[in-house]
Amino acid sequence: MKLGYTVLALVLGCGLAAAQDAGKSKMKVKVDDGKTVTVTGCVERSPEGQFTLTNVAGKNGSLGSYVLAATDDNDLDDMKKHVGHRIEVTGKAADRGKGKIKVESKTEGTTGKTESKSELKGDLKGLPYLGVKSYRMIASVCP
């Protein structure tokens, strides 16, 4: 589990290091594969701007939290409307089965443009990313 966090930290760290000299930077995390799941949870937004699903529960009980990520079906642009809401999400869980995560970062700074792409695949236990295929609001408040 610690290895997964270390690998992801290295991937994300490369994009963030480039962003320190940046006027503008953008990072996109996309889940391309994993086990399809349907879960419920509360939408929160991290200081970095990522959306997370907390207090997650599936049909087999509590699962913890997921970082919500884009898929080909959903780019998460409307997720900001659901911060603080309880939603049901169907998507691919990268930490179950054979997951696949792609990370793209683009930076424009005083030294020019920098782009990087990374891909992680295989057994991604410890990388709780959920690629959102669809979602619906269940309640306008979270417990």
Description:
Strands 2-3-4-8-5 form a 5-stranded mixed barrel. Strands 1-6-7 form a 3-stranded antiparallel sheet, with helices on one face. The chain is mostly beta strands and 143 residues long. It is 13% helix and 57% strand. It has one domain.
In short:
The chain has one helix spanning 2-19; strands at residues 22-33, 35-45, 51-58, 61-69, 86-93, 99-109, 112-122, 129-139. With 143 residues, the chain is mainly beta. A hairpin with a 2-residue loop joins β3 (51-58) and β4.
Q: Give the DSSP E fraction (strand runs of 2 or more residues).
A: over 45%
H-E string: HEEEEEEEE
Parts with pLDDT < 50 across at least 5 consecutive residues: 1-22
User: What number of domains?
Assistant: 1
The portion of residues assigned to helices is 10-25%
Helix vs. strand class: mainly beta
Describe the secondary structure blueprint for this structure:
Blueprint: H1 2-19, E1 22-33, E2 35-45, E3 51-58, E4 61-69, E5 86-93, E6 99-109, E7 112-122, E8 129-139
Parallel strand pairs: 4-8
Antiparallel strand pairs: 1-6, 2-3, 2-5, 3-4, 5-8, 6-7
Keywords:
143 residues; mainly beta; 5-stranded mixed barrel; 3-stranded antiparallel beta sheet; 1 helix; disordered N terminus
